[in-house]
Write a structure and sequence with these properties.
The chain contains 24 helices and 14 strands. It is an alpha/beta fold and about 600 residues long. The strands form 2 sheets. Strands 1, 2, 3, 4, 5, 6, 7 and 8 form an 8-stranded mixed sheet that branches. Strands 9, 10, 11, 12, 13 and 14 form a 6-stranded mixed sheet that branches. α1 packs antiparallel against α2, α11 runs antiparallel to α12 and α14 runs antiparallel to α15. InterPro entries: A/G_cyclase, Adenylyl/Guanylyl_Cyclase_3/4, Nucleotide_cyclase, TPR-like_helical_dom_sf.
Amino acid sequence: MAERNYTRQLATIMSIDAVGFSRLMGLDDESAVAAFEERRDIIADSCSTFGGRTFGDAGDSIMAEFGNPIEALRAAFDFQGRIVALNSSVDEAMRMPFRAGINTGDVIVRDGRLYGDDVNIAARIQEFAPHDGLAVSETTWHHVKDKTAAEFTDLGEFMLKNIALPVRVLIAGRIGSGASPASLVSATLPVNGHQKLSSKGPPAIAVLPFQGHGGERDVGYIADGIAEDIIYGLSNSRWLSVIAKSSSFQFRDDTLGTRVIGNALGARYIVSGTLTHNGGQIRLSTSLADVSNGRLVWSQRFDRALVDIFSLRDQIGAEIVSILDKEVDRAEQARTFQVPWESLETWQLVRRGRWHMNRRTRGDTEIALEFFEKAYRDDPNSSAVLNELAWWYFWRAWLRFGDSDDLDKVQQYARKALLMDSLDARPHAHLGVIDIMRGRPGSAVDHLDEALHINPSFAFARSAMGSARLLLGDAAGAIPFFVDTERLSPFDLYRFHNLGELAAAYSFVEDWPSAISTADRSLDLSPGYFYSRFLKIGALTRSGRMQEATRELAILMTRHPDFSEQRVRWIPFADKAANEFLIANFELAK
């Protein structure tokens, strides 16, 4: 048996993390590193003064060990006070606060390093601490509660990543320091409450007030307005539960961190952002975080010219709403794979079905239908389930060039979904696309108008409205709808179809370069989409690029040996001269 060269001991572990380090690195990496090192030296000095030692630096994180939990608490208060004073002397954009988590427990010591669950717990609870704040575990609290000039706010018990048992977390603040983050927490969380986010049921999302930066007086109003637009837009998604503005806007100071705020609001996802206004430009940086695991799901920066502030707000807000809806859906689809099949709830069955549907293979679409049908058996009045079934049969009808039986089923499910929820945009959109496929684009416009009135950010309805206008002969009027869809849903799995429709619109207005480039973008996403290649061939011939057109024709016939012009004649243009126009362009390549 190998000789054991490690020991066990009782220790107090402090995990310390620089808040916003990555953001500062993006602004000025050299200054960020210098600021971190200066503050790290302060931390090491405070820990040493109170009988501790630092170890295991990794990136922007520091670990410290103490023999006495009281001294650990004092060290944290000391270095945080010194860092607050230092930060107050530098530009606000370059301030670097530090938060800390303290846990007391059994550790393994080997070569000067510490290991064990109690080390990991310190790192996990540090994520609950406010900026410039401190979180402690229940075990540490028992040692220090009556022996230090500190006040504690109980956040309750949490299941922490890779920790078997729940851990009770408290926020610690120095008595007499004035208003503290803990006071805000205590106003929103029940003392001794168990704030465990449920893994079941539809998730809730909260949009925090966006932070405005810049000297202009109106930047705060713009930031709040965009956040409000996002709340309104997400509430139209129907499948998401959206925390009311009156609750989420209480957290204007985001120093508590997303974990604490999310648990306080009962939200699984938190949307936050910052807006900078500089002259005639604005920059909005926004992100989506998963509260349950602390993971950043999505982040993006939007740079826009500030010309018309109100249309700008609508544009950015709608774009973010569309992206957030899809990113949350993607995260929830992945989450359902952590749940055994027999334990799936109705909404989880829908998410699992959507995952398979998005793979777009014959086998996956059949599996998706099994999930949707099981969900329907479990809850035949769920509008979410009815809408997924309507979409499934629409997709198959589209592949079959308008199968009447499938369209009947789309109509059946869509109308029942409207009975269940008259303010859901999806059934209106499904009724609209039925009319499109049945050659009634004028009637389709009415349904799609209603869908977009309910949910202006609904990219599918915008694309369908473009198709309806295109079929009615208004190619120029259709183009903005397809372009809006590109902006609202830049990563949509069915984007190839929208681009194909846009290529057709450019063909009708005889903008051949745009038709060719748009068809190419569609084919990049779906090389087997016959319609985009057909349109590209016609646009190439009209541009006099016959050699390229001939090469594309050979690709089309190789990929689709059964292709006939009858496929194009099937497209339900109100004026059949439109079909013949596209076919005539194509025939020039033969």
